Amino acid sequence: xxxxxxxxxxxxxxxxxxxxxxxxxxxxxxxxxxxxxxxxxxxxxxxxxxxxxxxxxxxxxxxxxxxxxxxxxxxxxxxxxxxxxxxxxxxxxxxxxxxxxxxxxxxxxxxxxxxxxxxxxxxxxxxxxxxxxxxxxxxxxxxxxxxxxxxxxxxxxxxxxxxxxxxxxxxxxxxxxxxxxxxxxxxxxxxxxxxxxxxxxxxxxxxxxxxxxxxxxxxxxxxxxxxxxxxxxxxxxxxxxxxxxxxxxxxxxxxxxxxxxxxxxxxxxxxxxxxxxxxxxxxxxxxxxxxxxxx
Length: 295
Hints:
By secondary structure, the protein is mainly α. It has helices at 7-34, 37-58, 70-91, 96-103, 106-117, 124-141, 150-172, 178-192, 194-199, 209-232, 235-242, 245-257, 263-279, 287-292. The longest helix has 28 residues, at 7-34.
């Protein structure tokens, strides 16, 4: 049963989602400062699976997790794994505000890919959104001016990977529940990440385990809370609330890591966010899509 619309409740869930995203960003920075990216990704999946188990049992147990589309789950999670590993690696290379700004191009790449593979129409609104997004990235990275870094390219590739993953999730949600999608995400990514993690493995110090648990928990809670917000309000109301994540991330970067934000980052981020606003649909996004897209 769909809950009655409520902007205050949507705002509350979005506040929790943003807090979770911020926690995941800080936990990602702390864990990747001490461990290899592949090991962090593997621990995130394995610990996340343990955290998910109560929800799996409440949703009908392992029998309810059976799927008729195993290859689609595998393909989606290979792409998402590469994006997640790239995102974590970029955390170690560039300021948080720049990383999150470029990450916000994901919906724009999703729009392009949906036109190419899902048969969606390419209209003036989407063309304008794509143009703003590309211009925003160019303003931030400023190619040819000596300011472009490897981290910019990596997080841009990660954003494209997340866009591909989102298109695949849109297809999966036609037959799969959000719990099943997240279940297979954690299972598949635990398997494909096992060898890369083993090759770079070092025992995490005891002091790092709270951060490992934090990145696994917030990796799911952020998208669960976003999905809950979308049950109380349309995407046109909820998505602009998510844009608050950018200034809050910049503030966290300044307070914790002494990172400064220049005018180019602010201007590029504004263009990217404007592109996202133009691209917003008037219908509500499916909660399953929101919860599983970037988990």
